[in-house]
Amino acid sequence: MAKGNIILSKEHGVNPSIIVCPVCGKETGLGLFGKLKDDAKAPKYVTGEPCDECQKKFDEGYIAIIAMESKTQRSNKYAFIPKDAIAIEVKGNIALMDEQEFNVIFKDS
Length: 109
Description:
2 domains, three-stranded mixed beta sheet, two-stranded antiparallel ribbon
């Protein structure tokens, strides 16, 4: 079969997943996986490229900070901050942030 063709799953057919923005979680498209290893069912959601709104923020010089409920589970909270609010140099797990930006983002701390 030619490269790029989808081999249909015997059990799941085209085996679709909903593609979501890695920042805001907005649905941005549909992925068709076809047959996966062991004819597994594709996950309901997969992360894709940033949506147009989030990409615009990146293009404007912002970075995204995503709140995590645990090491593997993200929450639905996220924020954009200017890239220049973070120090160019990061040592280990410590980054320096402009105090005004820090106060805006962490106002409840």
